[in-house]
Design brief:
Helix content: 25-40%
Number of helices: 4
Largest sheet: 4 strands, antiparallel
Shape: rod-shaped
Strand content: 15-25%
Oligomer: single chain
Number of strands: 6
Radius of gyration: 31 Å
Length: 154
Protein backbone atom coordinates (compact mmCIF):
# COMPACT_ATOMS: atom_id res chain seq x y z
CA UNK A 1 0.00 0.00 0.00
CA UNK A 2 1.33 3.24 -1.06
CA UNK A 3 0.75 6.30 1.04
CA UNK A 4 0.36 9.85 -0.05
CA UNK A 5 3.52 11.90 -0.42
CA UNK A 6 4.22 14.15 2.54
CA UNK A 7 3.29 17.73 2.06
CA UNK A 8 6.00 20.35 2.82
CA UNK A 9 3.57 22.00 5.23
CA UNK A 10 2.67 18.83 7.09
CA UNK A 11 2.96 18.35 10.83
CA UNK A 12 6.55 17.05 10.59
CA UNK A 13 7.72 19.69 8.14
CA UNK A 14 10.53 22.14 9.02
CA UNK A 15 9.26 24.78 6.60
CA UNK A 16 7.29 27.68 8.09
CA UNK A 17 3.56 27.30 8.01
CA UNK A 18 2.96 30.92 7.07
CA UNK A 19 4.74 34.26 6.89
CA UNK A 20 4.22 35.00 10.60
CA UNK A 21 6.52 32.19 11.68
CA UNK A 22 9.47 33.39 9.62
CA UNK A 23 10.70 36.42 11.65
CA UNK A 24 10.45 38.51 14.80
CA UNK A 25 7.23 40.16 15.81
CA UNK A 26 6.97 43.86 16.48
CA UNK A 27 6.44 43.15 20.18
CA UNK A 28 9.69 41.15 20.34
CA UNK A 29 11.65 43.94 18.63
CA UNK A 30 10.23 46.60 20.97
CA UNK A 31 11.04 44.45 24.02
CA UNK A 32 14.66 44.03 22.89
CA UNK A 33 15.02 47.76 22.20
CA UNK A 34 13.58 48.57 25.64
CA UNK A 35 16.06 46.24 27.35
CA UNK A 36 19.00 47.76 25.43
CA UNK A 37 17.83 51.29 26.30
CA UNK A 38 17.54 50.35 29.99
CA UNK A 39 21.04 48.89 30.09
CA UNK A 40 22.50 51.96 28.37
CA UNK A 41 20.68 54.37 30.66
CA UNK A 42 22.23 52.67 33.68
CA UNK A 43 25.73 52.19 32.26
CA UNK A 44 26.40 55.49 30.49
CA UNK A 45 25.98 58.00 33.37
CA UNK A 46 28.64 56.17 35.40
CA UNK A 47 31.16 56.70 32.60
CA UNK A 48 30.68 60.47 32.43
CA UNK A 49 32.18 61.24 35.85
CA UNK A 50 31.01 62.45 39.21
CA UNK A 51 27.75 64.42 39.22
CA UNK A 52 27.18 67.53 41.30
CA UNK A 53 24.90 65.55 43.63
CA UNK A 54 27.63 62.96 44.17
CA UNK A 55 30.13 65.77 44.76
CA UNK A 56 27.85 67.24 47.43
CA UNK A 57 27.51 63.80 49.02
CA UNK A 58 31.31 63.50 49.16
CA UNK A 59 31.45 66.93 50.79
CA UNK A 60 28.95 65.83 53.44
CA UNK A 61 31.13 62.80 54.24
CA UNK A 62 34.13 65.10 54.73
CA UNK A 63 32.02 67.45 56.90
CA UNK A 64 31.12 64.46 59.09
CA UNK A 65 34.80 63.55 59.40
CA UNK A 66 35.76 67.13 60.36
CA UNK A 67 32.98 67.23 62.97
CA UNK A 68 34.10 63.90 64.39
CA UNK A 69 37.70 65.13 64.63
CA UNK A 70 36.47 68.23 66.50
CA UNK A 71 34.45 66.04 68.88
CA UNK A 72 37.59 64.06 69.68
CA UNK A 73 39.43 67.31 70.44
CA UNK A 74 36.61 68.51 72.72
CA UNK A 75 36.77 65.19 74.56
CA UNK A 76 40.27 66.07 75.67
CA UNK A 77 42.60 65.10 72.82
CA UNK A 78 44.43 68.42 72.39
CA UNK A 79 46.04 68.80 68.99
CA UNK A 80 43.68 66.44 67.18
CA UNK A 81 44.46 66.64 63.46
CA UNK A 82 42.90 65.84 60.11
CA UNK A 83 45.14 65.69 57.04
CA UNK A 84 44.10 66.88 53.59
CA UNK A 85 47.19 65.88 51.62
CA UNK A 86 47.35 63.38 48.71
CA UNK A 87 47.26 60.42 51.10
CA UNK A 88 44.12 61.82 52.72
CA UNK A 89 42.43 62.05 49.32
CA UNK A 90 42.85 58.28 49.03
CA UNK A 91 41.54 57.73 52.56
CA UNK A 92 38.41 59.75 51.72
CA UNK A 93 37.99 57.38 48.71
CA UNK A 94 37.45 60.20 46.23
CA UNK A 95 36.74 59.28 42.62
CA UNK A 96 39.61 59.79 40.18
CA UNK A 97 37.98 62.85 38.55
CA UNK A 98 37.52 64.72 41.87
CA UNK A 99 40.22 66.98 43.29
CA UNK A 100 40.34 67.99 46.94
CA UNK A 101 41.90 71.45 47.40
CA UNK A 102 42.50 72.54 51.02
CA UNK A 103 42.57 76.32 51.61
CA UNK A 104 43.28 76.37 55.30
CA UNK A 105 44.41 79.44 57.26
CA UNK A 106 47.54 80.20 59.26
CA UNK A 107 49.95 77.42 60.11
CA UNK A 108 47.50 74.80 58.84
CA UNK A 109 47.90 76.06 55.26
CA UNK A 110 51.49 74.90 54.84
CA UNK A 111 50.91 71.31 55.94
CA UNK A 112 47.31 70.94 54.66
CA UNK A 113 46.47 69.72 58.16
CA UNK A 114 43.50 70.91 60.18
CA UNK A 115 44.43 71.04 63.88
CA UNK A 116 41.76 71.30 66.62
CA UNK A 117 42.54 72.42 70.17
CA UNK A 118 40.73 70.86 73.13
CA UNK A 119 38.45 73.96 73.08
CA UNK A 120 37.22 72.97 69.61
CA UNK A 121 38.90 75.85 67.81
CA UNK A 122 41.05 75.44 64.73
CA UNK A 123 42.76 77.53 62.09
CA UNK A 124 39.66 77.20 59.87
CA UNK A 125 39.42 77.75 56.15
CA UNK A 126 37.88 76.14 53.10
CA UNK A 127 38.14 72.75 51.45
CA UNK A 128 37.09 72.61 47.79
CA UNK A 129 35.99 69.55 45.88
CA UNK A 130 36.04 70.02 42.13
CA UNK A 131 35.78 68.10 38.90
CA UNK A 132 35.33 69.17 35.27
CA UNK A 133 31.68 70.13 35.62
CA UNK A 134 31.00 71.00 39.27
CA UNK A 135 32.52 72.43 42.40
CA UNK A 136 31.54 72.50 46.06
CA UNK A 137 33.26 73.99 49.12
CA UNK A 138 33.31 73.19 52.80
CA UNK A 139 33.72 76.10 55.20
CA UNK A 140 35.35 75.51 58.56
CA UNK A 141 34.90 78.34 61.06
CA UNK A 142 38.08 78.42 63.11
CA UNK A 143 36.55 80.08 66.18
CA UNK A 144 33.20 78.30 66.55
CA UNK A 145 34.20 75.04 64.88
CA UNK A 146 31.08 75.10 62.69
CA UNK A 147 31.46 73.15 59.45
CA UNK A 148 29.10 73.47 56.49
CA UNK A 149 28.90 72.98 52.76
CA UNK A 150 28.76 76.36 50.99
CA UNK A 151 28.94 77.68 47.44
CA UNK A 152 32.35 77.08 45.90
CA UNK A 153 35.03 79.69 46.54
CA UNK A 154 36.88 81.18 43.55
Amino acid sequence: MRGKPLSPTGPNSAAPKNRRDSGFTLIEMIAVMAIVALVLSVALPKQTGTTSAELKSLAMRIVAQVKNTRRLALAGSDGTVLHFDAAAQRSFALPADVKLIPRLRGTCAQSATLVFSNFGTSCGGFISLTNRSASVAIEINGITGDVEVVDAQP
